[in-house]
Amino acid sequence: MTPELLLEAAGLLPDHGGYALAYGSHATGTGRPTSDLDLLYTGHSPLDDIVQAALTDNVVALHHRHGLNLDEEVPYAIKLYATHDQVDHAADLGGFRSTWGTPPPTVRETWFLSTDEFRLRLIFNVLTTPHVFLAGDYASYRRHVRSARRSTATLAAAFTTPGGPLTPRKAWEALWAAPDGRTGKDFLGYLVVPHLLSVLTQSLTQGQDALAAQMRASR
User: Fold this and answer.
1) Per-residue pLDDT tens digits for 70-105
2) What is the edge-to-edge ordering of all strands in the sheet holding 131-136?
3) Which of 50, 66, 98, 169 is deepest in the core (most CB within 10 A)?
4) CA 104 to CA 188: how far, in whole Å?
């Protein structure tokens, strides 16, 4: 991932009240030179059809200029742009509410990958996996990341059989693989063990600190 590629991607931000992120294999350093560049742009308001189409065309042109493959398994209308309200909803686990308490299915078909539920799950994954901040409103970006990462322990707890404390190891196992063996893009999309474990450990520690503070305040 060259500086030129990143700078060009940053310059495509359509709403300067939002921010731009790169994620996926380029962000983790595991991509091939021709791997597609995964991008998420955010803003305060929805994009009208003309602006959304222009953003998509510009991202496609960026890939062509740099000799990158295109990955359109998830439609650009779903994965490329989100409002801050949608990001807040995603960070609050909105993409998992319909299957709360059980590991959700992932259907690798266009009809499912085009749903709002999948969009929210994708945004949550972006915020809780390695990514690169490219441009825009850094304060909103940090707020969204903190909110999503705090939610990881809550999500793991929803997939874990009650009994005993939720340890980082148990939480990691719950989000890394489904009981039926699905992992990666066939489950929640987590591919980097140390990063996920770090996010969950921080989330659990923050939760314990908040509980201790509440107990001290109630005395």
Assistant:
1) 999 999 999 999 999 999 999 999 999 999 989 998
2) 81-83, 38-43, 19-23, 131-136
3) 66
4) 8
Q: What is the mean pLDDT of residues 46-60?
A: 96
Q: What is the pLDDT of residues 1-34, one digit of tens each?
A: 788 999 999 999 998 799 999 999 988 888 788 9
Burial of 25 (0-12, 13-18, 19+ CB in 10 A): middle
Expressed as residue numbers, the domain containing 119 is 3-218
Pairing of strands 19-23, 131-136: antiparallel
Q: DSSP assignment of 121-170, as one string?
A: HHHHHHHTS-EEEEEE-HHHHHHHHHHHHHHHHHHHHHTS-SSS---HHH
Structural domains counted in the chain: 1
The two tokens of residue 154 are 């809550």
Burial of 199 (0-12, 13-18, 19+ CB in 10 A): buried
Question: Are the C-beta atoms of 94 and 169 separated by less than 8 Å?
Answer: no
